[in-house]
Hints:
The chain is of the alpha/beta class. 26% of the residues lie in helices and 18% in strands. The strands form three sheets. It has a seven-stranded parallel beta sheet.
Amino acid sequence: MAKNSHIEWTNHTFNPWWGCHKVSPACDNCYAELWAKRVGHTLWGQRVPRRFFGDPHWREPLKWNHEACAEGTRARVFCASMADVFERRETLNHERARLWNLIDQTPNLDWLLLTKRPQHVLSMTPCRDDWPRNVWIGTSIENQKLAEMRLPYLLAVPAAVRFLSCEPLLGPLDLRSWFDRRPYNPIDWVIAGGESGPRSRPMHPDWAVGLLRQCQHAKVPFHFKQWGHWAPADCARVSRPNTELAIGDERPVRMIAVGKKLAGRMLEGTTWDSLPRPTSAYWQRTT
Length: 287
């Protein structure tokens, strides 16, 4: 958990528990698993116990809600950076129920629930058509195959905001037919970025630019989070030898492995920090 999170697209992070198991290529170099191991916890795997937390941990979002109310603002809470709320596991049911109760008690917080298991969302929530206005549902899609598998489930959810995290982006994505595919709900926000860490797979610049162009054409808010460990040689904020890489079937491109901080987050010479407007979007769809 972190107040004033360093993740660029949220204000705070909250984890109802730690631990998960891997389900797709984006999980291969899972930062959360590495972080848990770094602090002495082995929590990844289907049969491995999860790490749970006590009452002081669960009271923190209540404080954030009070602060947001006093300031007349809203705060975004990313839930969960060290787990997946919709992992199918009976031992998580109590914490899941506690989370929905907490969400109900914090109407000044917008809860961003990101999952790689959107097929479980509707069966693992107490909501049906009366979704809380402060719940945003997102799914991770790293390539076109996963987009086609996960988007129908995500876009069936009647949340105030549905968003995509295309990070780590491991291949080109064509979302044009999904931005307004009836009878599904629309995509309200797209986040994109490359992979961090020394074992990272480079993201081809054309993949990121292509996604940006699609969002611009569809007028969908776009957030570029990071290049990750690898950056195009002309974007990295350091002068070092670079390597010409052939990534997938794309044109060769000169990349440099410099780490997330020096790689930066400029795309096409600009920082992209767009956000959705959940209140107006909600009322447009429900009134």
